[in-house]
Amino acid sequence: MTMAEYEYVVKDFDSLSEDARQALAEFVDGAQIIEIVTSHAHGVVETSVSYLRDGKVYDVIYDETTRKLLGGSDPAVFDRVIAVLPESGRAAVQVLPPEKIRKIKIKHDDKDNREYVHLHTIDPEGNISNRKLELDGRSKH
After folding, report:
1. What pLDDT, on the 0 to 100 scale, is given for residue 109?
2. Is the pLDDT of residue 2 over 70?
């Protein structure tokens, strides 16, 4: 039997758990919060916050079950997510200029429930590509 998967909009940042507020505050402080969504799926609870800062919309995703940052589209988030990867994984997600990271997220594989990195990059022409990598940097098959 599979667990129900559902998500809902959270109306107020202050109604999030203390752990979630502490983990997310450094990214959303001083920004205009656009939307907060909490998802229950695959046995975990993830909270995603979309926010506006300096004319750009960003998001950050936090896993309330494991109490770790999973990803987002803010460059400050990239650094934090990449920092927890093994050295080989960190090396694999580093992109060479002029290509830039657009979004990164640590995800759970539905087949074996292992974590992997889903990396979206953008080139100077605006083309977006993505790669799925094992946490150690090997290509995910």
Report:
1. 83
2. no
